[in-house]
Amino acid sequence: MHEETTETGMSEHAGPSVPVPGSAAVLSLKPDCKLVCVEYPGYVVNVEKMLETVGGEPGVSKTYSEPSRRLELNYRPQDPYCHPLCGNRFPCTSLLLRVRKRSRKGSGAEAQVDMEVVGHIGTTYKFQGMGDFQYLAVHTEADGAQTSLYDKILLRQPEKKEFFDKEVPLYIPPPIFSRLDNPVDYYYRPDIQHREGYVSQTVSSENLIGLSRARRPHNAIFVTFDEKEVPSKPLEAAVQNWKRLCMHENDSRVEQQMREMFERRPIWSRNAVKANLDIHPDKLKLLLPSMAYYMLTGPWRSLWVRFGYDPRKTPEAKIYQVLDFRIRCGMKHGYTPNDMPVKAKRSTYNYTLPISVNKAVPQAASVQEITQDRGQPMKPAPPRYKLKEPTYIFSEDTLPPYRQMFYQLCDLEVESIKKLIHRNDGKEEECNERDGWCLPRTPDELRDIMSSMIKQNIRSKRPALFHPKPKRKAAAQEPESGEEEQDEEEDEDEEEYQPSEGSDNEMETEILDYM
């Protein structure tokens, strides 16, 4: 590794050095000597200290072995709070020359210059980012004096209890400084110019965000569980928006299909609609508000209800209630979050670190031959936007596509679950916001049954995840009470599943489409 490179135009197929009149020279290359260049952002006096700031030769070699990784440079290698500079990797075609100039003092002869090609460079690391993201472990006193905290917060050797009981000023370094280490031009937008006579809206706590953004013209009607009446017809603007967009024969056909769907079943989830209709998502956003209203709270939250239909007054609407189901994980259930067969769609841990670079990989082109005979009719085109059935239907032998799902009770195709739902048919007395027309705690019982089925399904497909628990050796005396068993149950309860960070919250996503 060298910190300087000299580029010159030479022939890679050169032979032995031959004197050439003028300033040109012909040198032989060493094809086996491949070098990596690091353009160090500083004046190098001590090479060993310079290498220490980039992790030494092992650190550079490790970075070079990973093409998507950037080279880290720490000006204070011994400081764990030093924020590194990151060098970008660039391909290059350069040569490293060793030039010697020999001359005799006092003689008038010309100096003799010898040049030798040490090797050729194919990769260069350049530090182009800013190095001012630093946060030192110091404390500023009231009089302006600064005190170092490194000896008080760094554990350099095993210490006694007194070390941890000492009073230390609060020091909380930021977990991340910036996702970008290069300056970016921020283009400020000019003030919005309104027409003469425009009256600005009053600013309240409900519309502080996105004042300069136009409201999305979908004209959906939102209804909460506490509202006394439900809308009987859509907004006129919603109808006009769909008529303006409905220009093709296929749009009219899809509209008729959706009308028949709501006549057959008055309440639908958006996933269920997308699994039964082949319609572009943008067009679906305009068609749904003209057919149904959206429930925000209660047992039918996040569902679309036909205009004029009030599920709170109809016990038969029990089968259309929503069930918020989330796959449980933990040692109690037999597998950890990393081993869960249903991966998260999003996660806060899946972000690009400043020391790594993601490059788009070109997709390979594919060619498909058309062998259709001219006399035979062409096959209908496959649906482009239609979802698969398992996106909204739960069965005993399938896994949910996401870790969090919003199922309707009528789409749970398991006999034991259906019996649990219909056990109070004809005896419904009151519809409450939590359980709807079902008996109290029915959603919790349904989740337990579904979780047990998923666990058995995973056990049959991936038995390696479920290891038998080793039996404890028998003690000399049995415990006098069930304290030990109680402790084990408490430990298992602590491992109860929490909502996944990567869950796809369908309700929030759908509301944002119309706000």
Automatic annotation (TrEMBL):
It is found in: Nucleus. It comes from Albula goreensis. Residues 459-474 have a biased composition (Basic residues). Gene3D superfamilies: TFIIIC, subcomplex tauA, subunit Sfc1, barrel domain. GO terms for cellular component: nucleus; transcription factor TFIIIC complex. This is General transcription factor 3C polypeptide 5. Residues 459-515 are annotated as: Disordered. The keyword Kinase does not apply. Residues 172-326 form the Transcription factor IIIC subunit 5 HTH domain. Residues 36-136 form the Transcription factor IIIC subunit Tfc1/Sfc1 triple barrel domain. Its main location: nucleus. The keyword DNA-binding applies. Keywords: DNA-binding, Nucleus, Transcription. InterPro entries: TF_IIIC_su-5_HTH (IPR019136), TF_IIIC_Tfc1/Sfc1 (IPR040454), Tfc1/Sfc1_N (IPR041499), TFIIIC_tauA_Sfc1 (IPR042536). One of its GO terms (biological process) is transcription initiation at RNA polymerase III promoter. It holds the Pfam family Tau95_N. One of its GO terms (molecular function) is RNA polymerase III type 1 promoter sequence-specific DNA binding. Residues 480-515 have a biased composition (Acidic residues).
